[in-house]
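Q: Start with the shorter request: fold the first protein.
A: Done. Sequence, then structure:
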Amino acid sequence: MPFMTPFTPRARSGLALLRRGCGLATLLVLTACGTEKPPPGCAKATPCESPRWQAVEQQGDVPPALWEASASYSRTSGDSTVVYRFGGQSGNFPDDFTVNDFHAFDVATATWKKLASPPPAARAEAVMIPGPCDECVSVVGGRGRFRTGSDQMFPEMWTYHVQSQRWEQASSEKLGDPFAVRRSSALVVEVPQAGQPGKKTYYAFGGVGNTLPRFATTPTGLRNDVAVHDEATGWRLVTTSGEKPAPRAWAAGGYDPDSHSLLVFGGYRLGADQGPDTPAGELFGPTNYENDLWSLSLETLTWTRLQPEGPLPSPRDNAVSFFDAAHGGLAVFGGQRFDGLSTEMWFYSVKDNRWTEVAFGSGSPIPPARVGGISFVRETPTAYELYLNGGASSDGGASEFFDDLWKLTWPKQ
C-alpha cells in the first residue's frame, strides 16, 4: 500500500553490494531494471538509473519531531497530492506520550499545514485509509501508551471531511466488527476492486491487539487475522485457510496485482522458544524478529509460505515497503533488527522468487536509520517515489527524534 506505518513502542533495543556476480551493474539489472540476467562478464548489461535518496526541504507548518504517527491520502475523485498525518508518540519511556496532532502535506509543493479541527483522542500507530466518501480520510483503531499496566486500545473509526473540516465518528453500523479494528501497528494494503475503476478495498493484517504488560505473551497481544473494509458494512474479519503466519506486528508488505495476492514480510512475533511465562526482558531477542515471506491469495484466501532462493534480508520489523508493479516485486527499506537499526534496501522478485540487495546511486545520501516514521508512495510515469518522514533513532532508551523528510526515487526503467 502507498501508505503504511507499522512501528513499535517497545524496548527493542549500509548497504552492501552483492558479494558475487558482476558487482553494481548486475545488482541494478536485477532490481531497478527487472529480472533479466545480463550476459556473462556483464559487458552488455543494460545501463539503468540507480535508486536515489534525497532530503526534501519542507515548507509551512512542519510537524514536530514525533514517531509512530499514521498517514494516508484522502479519497478524491482524481489523483490526490495531499497526504494526512495523524497522532503519534513523543519521547521515550517514562516520558512518552501519545498525541493527536493532525497535519496535511501537499506533495507537489512539500508544504505542511496544521489542521485545527478538534481531532479524535490522542493515539499512536492507528490504521489510516482514504475515507468511505469523496474528500475524506479515516483513522481506524490505534493504541494508547504501553507500560501503564492497563489496556488502552481504540476500537473505533473516525473520518475527517476535507471540505467541511469536520471529524465524524462512525456509527456501529458503519464501523462493523469492533474486534476487527481493535488493533494498531498493522500492515495495511490497498487493493483495486475488479471491474470498478477507482474503487479500492483495504486489508489490515496482524498488528497489536492490547497494551497489557508483556503484551506479546497474551492471547490478543499479537494478531495474525485479516480484516477487510467495505464502504457499506464497515470492517469485518475474513476466514483464511492454509498454514498462517505466526501472530505478529510491524510487518511489511504490499499487493501483487498479477497474482491478486498480498505479500507479507517479517515483523515482530513471540519467539518459537517463548511462551506465556517468558520474562519481559527476554521478549526482544533474536527469535522475536522475522524474515519470512508469505502470500495470501485474495481469490481463495489461502496462505502460502514462500521459500525464496539465495540470500535473504536479515530478520526485522518496522521496515517500510511498496510493491513495484513495473518489475513485479516488493521493495523493502530499513527496519529494526535484533542487533540494531538497518538502512538496507532489498527487492523481492516474484518471478524469480529471489531477494536481491539494492545499491543506491553513486553519491546518494541515505536517511538516518529510524523506527516509527511515516511513509507513503507517489507514483509518476517514470518512477515510484517513496517518502519517509519523522521517526526515532531508537525504540528504547535515549533517542533522537526526527522531523525530516526524505524521498527515494525508484525508477521504473
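Q: Next, the second protein, separately.
A: Sequence, then structure:
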Amino acid sequence: MGSGDNRLDLLKPGPRALYVELKRRFNGGNNGRILMSQREAAQLLNVHRNTVGGFFDELEERGLIRETKRGHLGADGHGIASTWALCELPTSDGKPPDTGFRTWQPKQKPVTKSVQPCHKNCASPADLPRNGAGPAQ
C-alpha cells in the first residue's frame, strides 16, 4: 500500500501484524504464491493457533489478502500451507491488483427504533403498576 494509504491504521494489532508478516514474504515475484500456514503465523505473532484464523478472516474480509490455494494434509501426513496473494499488487501469473480494499467500509450497526404500543388500548409504561400498587393515578 502506498505511503498515503492508511488502511492498515484501521486494523487491530493482530491482523496488522499478520499483514506485515505476509508482506515480508513477498519477494517481488511470488504474489499469489506466498506460503503461510495458520500454525506458522501463530508462532510468528506469538498467539494461539486458534486465534490467528480470525486475523486471516479479517484481512480477507477487508480485501487486503486473498487465499489462492487452500492448505491441506499431504499424502505423506505432513501439512501443506495455504498460499496467499496481497491484493494491492499484481499476482505472479499477471492478474492485476484487486483494489477492493480501497472502498471497504465497516458494517453499520442497525439503528434501533423505540417501539410504540401496537394497539390503542394497550397501557403505556407510565400506566403500569409499580411495586404491586394499582395503576398510576
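Q: Describe the second briefly.
A: The longest strand covers residues 65-69. Residues 31 and 94 are 10 Å apart (CA to CA).
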